Amino acid sequence: MNKYKKIALITGITGQDGSYLAELLLEKGYIVHGVKRRSSLFNTQRVDHLYQDSHIDHRNFVLHYGDLTDSSNLIRIIQEIQPDEIYNLGAQSHVAVSFESPEYTADVDAMGTLRILEAIRILGLEKKTRFYQASTSELYGLVQETPQKETTPFYPRSPYAVAKMYAYWITVNYRESYGIYACNGILFNHESPRRGETFVTRKVTRGLANIALGLEKCMYMGNIDSLRDWGHAKDYVRMQWMMLQQDYPEDFVIATGVQYSVRDFIRKSAAQLGIELVFEGSGVNEVARVNRIHGDKVPALKTGDVILKIDPAYFRPAEVETLLGDPTKAKQKLGWVPEITLDEMIAEMVAYDLELARQHALLKKHGYKVAVGKEK
Amino acid sequence: MMKTQIKTQPEAHNIALIVGINGQDGSYLALSLLDKGYQVFGTTRDVFSSSQSNLQSLKIGHKVKLLSMAVEDFRSVLSVLRQVMPDEIYNLSGQTSVGMSFERPVEAIESIAIGTLNILEAIRFLNLPARFYSAGSSECFGDTHGQKANELTAFFPRSPYAVAKVTAAGLVNNYQESYGVFACTGILFNHESPLRSERFVTQKIIQTAAKIKKNPKITLQLGNINICRDWGWAPDYVEAMWLMLQQKVPENFVIATGRTVSLEYFIESAFAYFNLDWKSHVRLEPALMRPSDIEYGAADPSKAKNLLGWEAKHDVDQVISMMCSAANENTLLTSK
Q1: Whole-prediction pTM value?
Q2: Over pLDDT 90: what percentage of chain B?
Q3: ipTM for this prediction
Q4: Residues A154, B155: C-beta atoms closer than 8 Å
């Protein structure tokens, strides 16, 4: 039997996808290296359970300080670990923030990808190292056809999407020009309890859990009519790995093929807490009111409470109204199908956030002054 | 967030800023705008070390105001825009060579994509009511597989240069849609002139043919001569740039002649101008092939014709003959 353990490098290992992918690869017997940015605050919560003390022998989980904006740092890390597979999940990943920091977004998301591809070339690893690029459904932006598949033309609508489009094409170009096994996973929205708190799904489940226990009164949302195709991150990282195990590198759309609105997501999340919502008014004056309450999960709420308002500050300068993926190619060629349904995922996310809110409420009840983390 | 006002009425746009003025297009555009009565400012990376050779060739070096600017550096972009306060900005700067972009991919994205972003951000920051032209490229389409590309054709870039140009075009659309900046991209197919440098295959062919005329021992080394392109005349194309900024609403346009020929046709015609048989002087060199290349590029410029009233005045045969004639005069001059 082959004792050789495959070596993987994950950028963005401290994020949602990075942490799930690290778990998957460790299960499969890989040695997993990850890149984390230096910060004065601890930023490794999502992978702390995988941490191994640096003094033990034969570690199979190793974190390196690094940054996608630092070419020589990336070249050094890649030279040192000689990875079989690189998963580029690191990015400035927030669409709204990209309107405020477009240059940083381009530097990390676009040039960061080029820096890794160049590192592979400079180190002569074109034939050894396989490269996965985390592409995104945001590339489709102002959609040119529905549903979106691998051949649908792109129309990016944010600096984030434009930077990711660069990364997509430069990945294709290095595959064609230098024969690198490099491919793009065009992932539609994928969520989990590990999703960052400022992304809309997590903002909803966390906000509702906090409201349920009286930690917050109301949540403020942007465009709740946006339509999205939501899957579970755990299903999607399995596909990332599968894409690097083929005979030839190819790009794939990863999606569920089912679409819901943000409003649907809010309704379903509220239902998990026993809250039946009614939406009243329209446009920026729309609110969501508690219509009925089932069960005892929401001690702080009563019928008639307004728990959601619209704040135009969360509108994007250019909105992406609708995204719906067609995962036929992934199913036919790789046999990949998502296993976790939206309802199961929402149940998991709400349960997780309710647990966090309960911990928070408990501290508060015992006199500890703990603030609820807020966006901006 | 600041919103930039769109000028709805074409009014006296009298100050133009040409970013990258000493290139082929920058120089011809400067000439054209001066003729139209504009006050023309132009930037080059470093005024003191710039050759200004193209501006001198057109004898307009003394008529334009030159400023130093590095598009990759936001401070330098901001200070030039603040100083000039232009009505129209033409960004023609950036790495220009597809071949070089494989050697310098980082320079490609920095000079093309980040450079465009910096200008857009500076316009937004200064709330400048300027109209912005961004130099796109037919390279964005990649191989058009026998089809004629128009404004709706999907991009398929095949070089770091083209990927950067696609990115710049995306940013231009984004700033137009998000902030109402009057910004548009001209998707220009190949356009040539005597001001083209020998880095480009067209000028390389013509200059070498002119030399072979005097010294038949010289050989011309080329990569892939089966490629097909739509070649036009650069002075025609800068008119299209200007027209794009005179419209009521900003739109992107494909600018081309509509006629595609092979590089072999170009070579044959250029050598024929000098009464030479190309087959005796051309050597194919695999090392000159690109890591990935476009076989066939063709264009449908009918939108430009319908909306801008623009048509190429010269086709590839005239382009070849005018370039050959210029090369011939030059060699006559230098041989005197």
Answers
A1: 0.90
A2: 87
A3: 0.86
A4: yes
